[in-house]
# Entry
Amino acid sequence: MAIDIDAVREQFPALALTHDGNPRVYLDNPAGTQVPRVVLDRMMQALVEFNANMGGNFHTSRLATETSAEAHRAMADFFNASSEREVIFGANMTTLTFMMTRVLASRFEPGDEIILTQMEHDGNASPWRIMAEERGLIVKRLDFDPTTYEIDVSRLDALITPRTRFAAINYSSNILGTINDVAAMCARYRAAGVLTYVDAVQFAPHGAIDVQRLGCDFLVASAYKFYGPHQGILWGREELLSTLPAWRLRVVKDVPPGRYETGTQSLEGQAGTIGAIEYMQWVGRTMGAEFLPTTSGMSTRTREVHAGLLAMADYDRGLSRHLIEGLQRIDGIEIRGITNPERFEHRVPTVSITRPGLDPAELATFLDQHGVYVWNGHSYGIDVIERLGLQDRGGVLRIGPTHYNTVDELDTALTLIEDFVRGRVRSDR
# Structure
C-alpha cells in the first residue's frame, strides 16, 4: 500500500489522545473525520490574524476576502470544476439542499416526476419529498437489491417517463458502503433531459470526484467528512447557477456564487477547508505518485488531490478486506453490504452489521467503554434501514475506518465484538 500510516497519523493530533487509559480508536468516521494539524493551523490563522468581515478596504478584510476566494478555487479543483464560480459554501449539506429545493421548485409543475434512490441519506431525500408535496410532484424510487446491496442502473428505463424532471443520486451509501455508478445514472438522466443532484458526502473521503466525468448538474459534499471543519459545499453548473432564481439581499451582486451564499459566511470554516485540501495534496505528492491522474486539462492541485484520495482509497480497500474477513469469523454476524473482495472497488470501508438478538446500541456502548467509537441506529439512512426491515431491531452497528486507521485498531474492535457476542451467546444459553 502506498500510504505511510505512521506519517499520516502524525498529522492528526486527536489520534494521540486516550480514553480511560486506552488509545482512542476512531471508527465513527462516516459521521465525521478527525482533522489534521494544517486544518487547525488554517482556522487559527483566520481567527487570529484576519478575523474580519469580507469586502472592506482595510488589511484584515482584504486577507479574509482573499481566503474566501482561495477556498472557492480550492474546492473547484477538488471537484475538477470549470470555475470557482460553480462552488457554493453553506452551513452544511442539508441546509444547502433545502435551499436548492426552493431554487429548483419553480421549474416543476404538478404531475411532474422526481426519482430518488432507496439508498439516500435523509438529507438528500426529505428535502425533495417536501418539495414534491408542496408542488404536487410524483416521487418514484430506484430500489437496490437487498441481496447484493447494489443498484441495477438498467431499472431506470422503466422509471423515466416524459414527465421525469429531477433525480437525486446517492454516490455512496452511509449504511451499506456501496459506491453507485453515478456516471451511468447521469448519462441516462441527461439523455432524458432530467436534472441530477448527487450526494457525494460519504464518497468524498474515499475517492476522487470529477464532475466533468460524472456529467451531473449539481453535487454536494461536506468538508467535515473529508478531514476538514463543519462546512457544506455545493457544486453546480455555472449556466444553471447563473439563471436559476436566487433569494438574496439587495447589496449582493446577482452572480454566482455570491447570489446563493446568504449572510456572513464562516471564514474559519472556509480557511479550514483550504487546509483539508492542502492535506490531501500532501498525501498525493508524498504517497500517491502511482495514482496521479493522466487526464488532460486538470490543474496541478486537482491532480495532487485526486492522487491523494486514490492512494487513500487503495489503503481503505485493505482495511475493508481485513474488517469484513474478521467479522465473517464471528458467530452470527451479518454484514449488510458487499462482501465479495472482487467487488471492493464498488464499496467504501463503511461496514454495517447486525446479529439476531443483538442490540446495536448496547454493543456500541460496550465498545465505547474500551475507547472504540462506532455508530448505531439508522445514521439518517432511514430508507435503507426500512428497506432491510431493521427499523424495529435498532438499525445497524456501523464501523467506518478511514486511511488514518490501522489494522491493529480493527483487530481491537474485532476482538471486543467477538467477546461481546460470546458473552451474549453464553448468557442466552
Q: What stands out?
A: The chain is about 40% helix and 15% strand. The CA atoms of residues 86 and 324 lie 39 Å apart. The chain has two domains: 5-36+313-428, 40-280.
